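Why do we care about 3D structure at all? Because function follows from shape, and shape follows, mostly, from sequence. That is the central idea of this module. The next example makes it concrete: a single protein chain, its amino acid sequence, and then its structure expressed as tokens.
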Amino acid sequence: MKKNNSRYSGGRYLPAVLIFILFLIFLYSAVGNAMAEDLSWEDFSAYLEDEVPLLMEEYDIPGANIAVMENGEIKRVKSYGLADREQEITMTADKIFRGDSISKMVTAWGVMNLVEQGKIDLDDPAENYLTRWSFPETEFDEEKITVRMLLSHRSGLPSGIYNDYHAMEEEIPSLEKSLSGKTGGPAAKPVKEPGESFVYSNPGFAVLELIIEEVSGYDYADYMEQEILTPLGMNNSGFRVTKEMKSEAVTNYKMGEEAVPFHNVGPVKAPGELYTTVEDLSKFIGAWMKNSGKGNPGGDILSLGSIEKLHTPEIQTTGMYQYFSDSYGLGHFIKELPDNQQVIFHGGEGSGSGSIAGGIPEKGVGIIILTNSNGSWQLLAAVLDNWVEYLGIEWQGISRIFQVAETGGKIVLGVVLFVSFVGFRRLIKDVISGRRKFQPLSETSRIPRLLQFTLAVAVMGIWWGTSINEFLVWLLRDLSFWLEISLKIFSSFLVLSAVFTKESKRSKLI
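And the structure:
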């Protein structure tokens, strides 16, 4: 009987086929999403009571405060876990959190207050209000940058954060020095044509901070306290940390483990340096509710027309932001709902904190979630999803980021494992048959083998030598371990292929 020598015969690729089938099942489980029924208030309350502590344990989140709002006021506020692990301080509703980028919504109110006073025009060039500092010259026309563009992240200024945090006793550098890129953060200079694209920009809000100071004649923190925070009754909030506030502040934890030392607020405050409580934030959210039963929104600070301007879409969001929002207004993310309703919100993340706050002005409902860990985004997404189910609205929220990332991660994992399996199988077969020998210095296929070795080093260097490892642990908590294992296997295959030289047909003839 003639032996079948077909390369596809005898179940040669059966293991690879099985792996591919398992991968498809794995992928299907990621994108499969069963339809969930609307939750009653009792169901949602039970979820907050029973499931949130389990999520905190799963994602190693020390503590959290969650407030649910209806009719513009808190309907339920719940504290979880610890404000400080080392001292075992229990979390309470009056604990102070760093609001991070939630601060941008409050800063936008500060700008709009000056607009209502006739001191700022949204469509004026930003440089009209600057005397202490000016935009560095670039290939782009900085004179086109308007106040409206700064508020809506379409000024062309770069992304990036300011790391100019200092110990409480250290001298703080000037805001102008930070805007010039001399304190560890990016310079506030255009990197794209102003007005043409969405680029989420902390430097843009740092420029707004300087504009507020120049126009009002006050220090930014003082102005915001006097004109926005105090009138709203946010008496436990501020952009300047006092000793009293510090004593009530939570301890932040990097990915839930490493405590982040408390720092003085640096010169750049407007993008993310609001310190606040869950109860104070509820007063801010409640002030822009149209259905609160408290009369006109605005908290006697802004008119309804100004609030609607803040919540009017200015530009379509892009990148990861498009997965949970449709557009960005003036300092606010926007998700359009049926019947001309909108979810208005903002999230925030620091070196050891994560939060989200927002609501639906037409319904008078809102939610605030504050945590003292930057590894809490899966918790934020889960609670937000359940709140949406309770309200009976269609919005996937920030969980869509994790679903898309998980699907992509599983595809990468499957492809890397498949390629590694097939490659190792051939490598082992060639070594056993004698076609490959350990000859790392051989002249045969030197350049391709050098490229293989370089790729292996590059893969592992990027994974362990850059922040991508930390980013993927944040984004793919459940998959990051297996991605690391798969990359180790793939890199090992590349290295072994490089040092075990495959004999060429020419060398055999010789």
